[in-house]
Amino acid sequence: MAAFGKRGLDARGTESATISLAPAKKTKGFCSSGKALEQNYKWVRSVTNADALAKCVFCKITFPIKGAEEKALKRHQMSERHQQSLQLQEQNSFIPECAQTHSPSRQSFKVTAAEVTSVYHGMKHNHSRMSLDCDSRLAQVMSSDLAIATKVRCGAKADNIMMNVLAPYSEELFLQDLGSSYFSISSDASNKGNKKMFPLVLQYFHRSDGIQQKLLDIYEDHNESAESVVTKIKDILLQKGLQLQQVSSYSADNASFTYWKHHSISKHLQTEMPHIIPVNNLCHVLHNCGKDANKTLAKYDVEMLVLKLHSEFSSSNEDVAHLKDVLAFLDQDWKEILHNVFTRWLTLLPTVSRLVECWPAIKSYFISQGPEECHPLIWKFVEDEEDGFSEHNISEAECYIHLHYILPIFHESLMKLESSTITAPELYAVMQGVRGELQNRLDDQYFGAKVASALRLLPQHVGQQVSQDFTAFYSRAISYLQSWFDFNSSPLKSMQVFSLQETVTWDKLCTATEALNLKDVDMDALYSDYLALRTALPILLNMTEASVADRWVNFFSNAEDCSTLYRVVQFVLSIPATNSYVEQVFSLMATSWTNQRDEMVLPLIKAELQVKLNFNLSCEQFHAFVKDNQKFLEVAKSSDKYPFKHKYV
């Protein structure tokens, strides 16, 4: 009886079986020249019990070689599949040697032990998986020399390197890059325990690198008065060698002591620097606008409904299970009930949208519970006996749930404001767009298709009340916007010419420059630069996918001089569109300065954040950047980085 031999893969990678007509017995594999072939082709292995086959350890396939061993090996070596497998092996393997045997070598065990230990190390010290992957790649770059690897120690000296070498170096680099350019100041206040922390962020525009945002300082001050903040800002700027005349703008949140009061921070700064442009946080303006307008819809408070529903289903697995049964009966998938963020009112949009999706099931669930087991606010929305929304009939309460047809007006503009590429020249158009959309809906009395359908079917007095509430919503929102954003005389209005969204005329450019109140602008030189801009404008206008900053970088990279126009654009693009970068600083501070790291001091957390935010290099790029920087390495190697060395000098 024929016996089937070991199953393998043919030259095309498909599974095949070799048939032996005699009982299987162990053979040496290759013929007498096989050992020499293995030495010349380190990726080839013999196949036990099959003299006519060879195996490639990279491609993981067997192929015939009988009668033309070397020719067959060369043909496979030149194949596309082998070349791809070889390239993949070189990229992913920790072992530089391509010769691996069927049985694991001692070196492969060491590699595996190193991998397992790295994962354990990351778990012990709360490192992310991306951090572990970066460690492994960086180790190959930095520790290729065994003598270096055995001498590297970063224990007690790590904090001193961070505070006295890396952080000051990050400051030095961006201050050199900044030079005499215009820059804006962004700040805010946040509590860390019983401490009041103030970060100070600069933004400026660079001819070739575009908009740059850097963390200049973080300081602690228990005094949050406008006078104290202004004094501290001036002291820090002068300490860093920066001039007050370079400041283009001040940005913070919408606290009353920041703007609008006679003794606010912005008023104090404008007294010392009349040319600066205060920019409040327009994201907060939109959030607060929606929240304020929602007061007109108090009869059916959708925001409170969302909070009560989330509380109901987040605290009881039994209630969730019952709701899932109702959803299954209605042939709907389970989706978690969301809630909004209290300080960001427009996060209500995804929450209400989810509520509308699940409303038929939610309504059926609470109707089955009855008024005795249901919170009065929830029962107010579901007491109508009709089961869920229908195409032609929704209740009065359900009209207010359709608030989510109005929220996108704010939400779409908010997404534009929160974009990482938005610039000051684009702000006016965004705010004008919100106001225009609200005004159009108010004029047309349009409240969404579902509400319009319901108004025709509801009793007349009920429909009139709903219409009055939504009309009041639009009117109050428009009034709020106009009180917190100057649509008539804001400098942002004339700045629109710098957005490069439409043809730039000399009159618009001249008007915008005069509105900026800049001194020493040579208008004749500016006109010459304008002519160069007008020539390049068709190309810039066609860069529809590029940001405003990238368009200006493109222009100045190809313009011969245009120094006067560059100075004006530098001022405009240094103005921050939002205060999001400062909020990012607070977020990073919260993740770095945890309760588990409560012994950290402010200078150390400041240094960590400066290094993290001011350097835009990967770890490997940073190593390449500093390894040949002799001056920097001398400072890092010197004992001057240890502050205690200077105590007794």
Detailed description of the structure:
With 649 residues, the protein is of the alpha+beta class. It folds into five domains: 3-92, no CATH class; 165-281 and 579-616, 2-Layer Sandwich (Nucleotidyltransferase, domain 5); 305-484, no CATH class; 491-573, no CATH class; 618-649, no CATH class. It has 28 helices and eleven strands. The strands form three sheets. Strands 6, 7, 8, 9, 10 and 11 form a six-stranded mixed beta sheet that branches. A three-stranded antiparallel beta sheet has the order 3-4-5, covered by helices on one side. The protein is globular.
In brief:
By secondary structure, the chain is α+β, with helices and mostly antiparallel strands. It has helices at residues 34-40, 69-77, 80-92, 106-124, 129-142, 146-149, 157-178, 226-239, 265-272, 282-293, 302-314, 317-329, 348-369, 376-382, 396-401, 407-417, 427-444, 449-457, 460-484, 491-494, 506-515, 523-541, 548-558, 563-573, 580-592, 602-614, 619-626, 630-637; strands spanning 3-9, 15-20, 44-47, 50-56, 61-64, 183-187, 190-192, 195-206, 210-220, 247-252, 277-280. The relative contact order is 0.09.
